[in-house]
Amino acid sequence: MNIYFLLEGRSTEKKVYGAWLQYLLPEFQRVKFYDDAQDRNYFLISAHGYPSIIHEYIPDAINRIKETGQYQYLVVCLDAEEDTVESKKQEIDDFIKNSQTELGSIKLIPIIQNRCIETWFLGNRKMFDSRQTNIQIPLAEYVRYSLSHVHKVQRWRPQTVGGPERERGFEKYLISPGTAIL
Predict the structure, then answer these.
(1) How are beta strands 2-7 and 29-30 bridged, if at all?
(2) In what order do the strands lie in the sheet with 107-113?
(3) Quick check: 40 and 73 in contact, CB under 8 A?
(4) What is the pLDDT of residue 178?
């Protein structure tokens, strides 16, 4: 069995999923090129954002999987942002249906991060220390805002905090150049 992971982000998701999969699937080996998969392999590729992950990379991934015949699962990982998890899943399903893309025997598994994967880091004290002195703006502004809602961030639901400006794309506070959490 082999798994093809399609990741929305350019770097965070690749680092995180790469590290997690070493522990979650220790019997699997990561391959550098999708067509190198044999047995018990996984491949990670970044779609460089939304909406290209849905409109360009999903069809490409399905074609590659069919071409090699080596993958049983296509795992699509993306952020919900201000949408709901269910609406993102529906968007993927609708795209596949409307584009008449045939999955064949491929099992599609969407993993939708509520808000964005970076909110998980804010709530995880081992991943992100809010007491750092070298946090730069705009991440520093978001950290100050989230600390005022610490009960949500570190104990309950970091994805519900929102942002200081409450605008679409709030993850810019978390992954701006030079201020990324990872």
Answers:
(1) unpaired
(2) 29-30, 41-46, 2-7, 73-79, 107-113
(3) no
(4) 43
Give percent of the chain with pLDDT exceeding 70.
70
176: helix, coil or strand? coil
Give the model's pLDDT for residue 57.
Answer: 97
Burial of 23 (0-12, 13-18, 19+ CB in 10 A): exposed
Q: Are 4 and 36 in contact (CB under 8 A)?
A: no
Q: pTM value?
A: 0.75
Q: What average pLDDT does the segment 110-118 reach?
A: 84
CA 25 from chain center: how many Å? 18
DSSP 83-120: S-HHHHHHHHHHHHHHTT---TTPEEEEEEESS-HHHH
Q: Which amino acid is at 21?
A: L
Give CA separation, 3 vs 6, 130, 153, in Å. Answer: 10, 35, 32
**Higher-confidence residue: 176 or 127?**
127
DSSP state, residue 125: T
